[in-house]
Amino acid sequence: MSEKRGLQEIIKWEKRYQAFGLEKLCAWDFAHDNGQNPAATGVARKYADHFEELRQDGTGLSIFGGAGAGKSYLAAEIVSDLTDRGYHCLFTNMNTVMIELNTMAFEGRRDFLAQICDKDLLVLDDLGSEPETSYCNQIFIQIVNTCLTRNVPLLFTSAFHEDILTKEGSNAKRAMAVTRLLKRNISYTVLMPGERRNTNLEQKRKAEAMVKGGSAGRQETMEGFEGSEAACGETAVTECLPQTVQPSLLQTLQQSLPQTVQQRLPLK
């Protein structure tokens, strides 16, 4: 029985790897959710539970939110759940798509794009981070239009607000493609939980302490610059001023400096 269960786990992991392409993402599922954002997890779970009905109309999911809010994890949870249930999913991003295309001959690019859209669910993670080039926009528009035509649900995550993604800017066709996609998709904005925000701040403080050392705001003298303070103390203020500066201005400057500074920086 244990051998059979072990074999099933291997098969499940292999199918997830085919969907993600990265081993670490294979463990991003509902079972490992830390529970910090139950509302967001609930949305992802309901989408996965009702996927069979939603996919009939090609209804996808648009997940917005700031960096570190958990957008990618929510999308990965959905992919893991659907993949385990036998659906064929692909979790990728436009940067990866463009890299793959650039390594292919022209004849193979059409087949590659056809395979991307030949899924039960396509996920484009971190939309908007890809380079803003005419060729990249062309590929994105082709993917969106193909998914809409075939009723393939397209889930995407983005740190940009939908108003920015639909702003025409330099490419009206791309903005129109996003607008059409948003009309079919369910939109959801993820807010970073306070606990996660505090954890991130604490990690940043620890990292800064390791690099800067000492207490906050205190800077240690770097090796090789031990004599820099003494050298500054020996420099007269007049050496840093033009020769044409009037003596009266120097006198005023001297009077405005604290006594400790006047002692360390002698005025000529």
UniProtKB/TrEMBL annotation:
Superkingdom field: Bacteria
A GO molecular-function descriptor: ATP binding
Pfam families, per the entry: IstB_IS21
Residues in IstB-like ATP-binding domain copies: 61-147
Species annotation: Succiniclasticum ruminis DSM 9236
Any one GO BP annotation for this protein: DNA replication
Name of the protein this chain belongs to: DNA replication protein DnaC
